Structures
1.
Amino acid sequence: MLSNSIIECFKMRTWQNEWLNWYAEHRRDLAWRNTKDPYAIWVSEVILQQTRVDQGTDYYHRFLDRFPTVSHLANAPEKDVLKCWEGLGYYSRARNMHHAAGQIVATHGGQLPADRDALLALKGVGPYTAHAVASIAFGLPYAVVDGNVSRVLSRLFLITDDIATGKGHKRIEQQALEILDHRDPGTWNQAVMELGALVCTPVNPRCGDCPVSGICKAYIKGMTDELPVKSPKKKPRDRFFNYLVWEDPGGIHLTKRTTKDIWQNLYEFPLWESDQPVSGPEELIEAMPSYFRSGKEKIIDHTSITHILTHQRIHAVFCHVQSDRVIKQPGIERIERDSPVAWPVHRLVQQYLVKLGFIF
């Protein structure tokens, strides 16, 4: 007579196979699924952490074309890396990858290490990225947990802990490891994530198309809409950015954003951040360094844009001024209208430059 543990193991293997068969039939044909190159897989996982697949695909190809190996990335100027990342957001990902590439060249001969702890020692690499690369590129038995996985497992096993808390996340991690298919952990991890992306969606999950709905506790109890439990996000804080778009015969001025803040090391127009909205362009110009003020500037545009980030709401004002005075100051770069913008800028500045007719 078979023991209960053997019977349970047999049942799990059965629905694992059904899940993998579903993945083989329905998975999206994504470029990074057609390679075992650890570097390419790493790049894709970093891009997709905060980016939709449809947006991230072009960046993935562009990034690998520009930096085809770890060594190419490590040896590139940071400015070029940020320029390639331009418009993708969450620029710390690019800066961390650049730094980590240097670590890989210095410590691992330019090859990503096939070791979880060594991967975790790289700048910007946390458990999710380390486990994804370790399992997909090297076949190591580590479970991946992202938003899709958390949602799938919360419903499948009726986990009612808040997944935004340490306790809830730990339960998801333990459950993910318990059901990990050690025959091919990389494919299994992708199958779980894909089910969350295509079927077990946040709203209106397609339970009728799910290969494991028969064992899904939330589906059986009619609780799919109640899971996962996740505490609401904090209200974003408001910030007021006042940009002076200074255009003189030499071009439009850009300065490097060097503070450890959003958009670090990207370029933007001279900025004054205020505690509240400014009264008008004159107040903005008055707040700028004295070399911008001569009394002969011509204000040709004054535009407001609200830019929403994950934890911040940026209320930006652009005051476009034309002057016949050429200003030369340390730290100022210039861009000309008839040349592509070579400096990496963030989305907010890019939008305004496109409005002015600049080429990217």
2.
Amino acid sequence: NSKWGAHDGIVLNYQAQELSKASTPFFSMLLTLSTHEPFEVPVATPFNDPSEPELFKKAAWYTDESLKNYFAEVKKQPWFSNTIFILVADHGHRLPLNRDYYDPKIRRIPLLIYSPLLKSEFIGLKLNQTGNQNDIASTLLNQLGMSSENFEWSNDLLAKDRHNFAYLSLDEAFTWVTDTSSLVIRPNGRNEHDKGSPTVALAYLQLLFGRFLSY
């Protein structure tokens, strides 16, 4: 019922219903889409301006509201108290601030780990590390006391000796970000950077593709 599929509220409600019939333990995931263009939502929101930034806020409000309703529902399930929920975006957006497409700031994404199983010292904890989605694997497995050695490219967000960085691949460029710098490298030689050096980024990329081609 939307350009990309079903509205978030419908999808979240469907998953909640399906999980009520699932046997445990289970692994389940879904992809929301209401915060993707054209930002269509089926309900009224506090954001009614037709401008693109306001449409983005409108869609984000709807997704948040859908998540609130979702958690209110799944909290009633017997498996809720033994479940880990991970909310993470696949990519960021230039809106609502109309940032430049190559600005690394538009690639920033939310990552939320929520569970009744969280230790008290992790409740409300905000991490400032710079990382990627692939870092979730080792972060979660190490906290569960399980081996993460199969996830060679995963960098535990809670590791005390962690080197903070993020790698981003675009169609015509790639970006390397640390806590103090950012670098955009393009094949045509036009690089854009803020205190960044391409040496480590190029070494990472060389190793990454070398490992891929060796499989």
